[in-house]
Design goal:
The complex is a heterodimer. By secondary structure, chain A is α+β, with helices and mostly antiparallel strands. Chain A folds into two domains: 41 residues; 134 residues, no CATH class. Chain A is 49% helix and 17% strand. In chain A, a hairpin with a 2-residue loop joins β5 and β6. Chain B has one domain. In chain B, a hairpin with a 2-residue loop joins β1 and β2. The longest helix of chain B is centred in the N-terminal third of the chain and has 60 residues. The relative contact order of chain B is 0.14. Classes of the chains: A alpha+beta, B alpha+beta.
Amino acid sequence: MDIPIKRMNRSKKSQLEIIGIAIVVVIIVLGFLFVIKAMSTSPSSVQASFVRAHIAQDVLNAISISDANCGGMDMTELLKACVEGETEVECGKPCIVFKDSVDILLKSTLEVQKLPYRFRAYEGPDPPKDKGEAISGIFLEYNGCNKTSLDRGYYVIKERPGWWIIPVTNGDVKVMLEICSRPY
Amino acid sequence: MNIISKRSQINMMETIMVLFIFFIIVVIGFMFYSKIQESSINELQRTRFEQDAVATAENMLYMPELQCSEKSVLIDVCFDVYKLDAFSSLVDQAQDKEAFLFYQRDFGSSVVNITEIFPASTDPAVGLRKWTIYNNPPENRDKKSSVIMEIPVSLKDPIKRYAQYSIGILSIEVFP
């Protein structure tokens, strides 16, 4: 009679210990979840998102009215001359001068701030996928902001792109400037 | 009697050890929690500061004292270079203390510069112009963290007959 009671007591004790271990494991798992949650919240920068949200349109607004340093022409007139097939303006071939000027500008505005961008000029309804489809190869990319990295989800376009639309004899010329961001 | 007493002592020791470890875990958890709370408070402070910096930038971008216009229509994110000349000399601590104090309410502890970047002037004597619009850094500037914003702007030279517009960078450094 004495032996079964002893056995039962031992069995009860084992059960209690198992419950104790289970509670410890649950507490440790909860602790880990808390740590992971606390560490995963990345700091969001108000100032960085303000700049990202405005900079594309600000750059295009500034470019559209700026002097092109080409016999009194502004950048809009220069792009118009390029699209309408003028072979020569006072400072050279309009398409090349336009592209070089935009390149200088984007270097000193977006590239200085390490902002990946994609700048495209086109005439049709859809934006060009590569240089060949853009007007005179006016298709500039920086820091891997391209179709491949966007398709793979390495980058996303979070902010509204900047637009600059110029009416020409055959329709509209559209210039689009997108800023790439990391998805997280 | 002796064996029972020894067993009880061992049980007591076991309970004390369990409680001791439990309290150590609680203390470590509390320390970790307070660290996280501290960093989230710092993050909140940083966010508030950045919001103030953005407000300063917005104020600067749409100041009627500096904005340019075309036939009385205001142009978005554009500054008149003659207004910049006048403003930068007016809001200079050394020259006009009253004007400086007036704008200090809006811009606080910050440094605002505008640098022309394009097109490069054909006249090498002129070069690319730079204006210090507001200059009020804290005394120990190097030790303080700051928020820097660089925004592309248009610059208008209304005296010119053609090619009035150039491009500049508005650089705003705000200190807490």
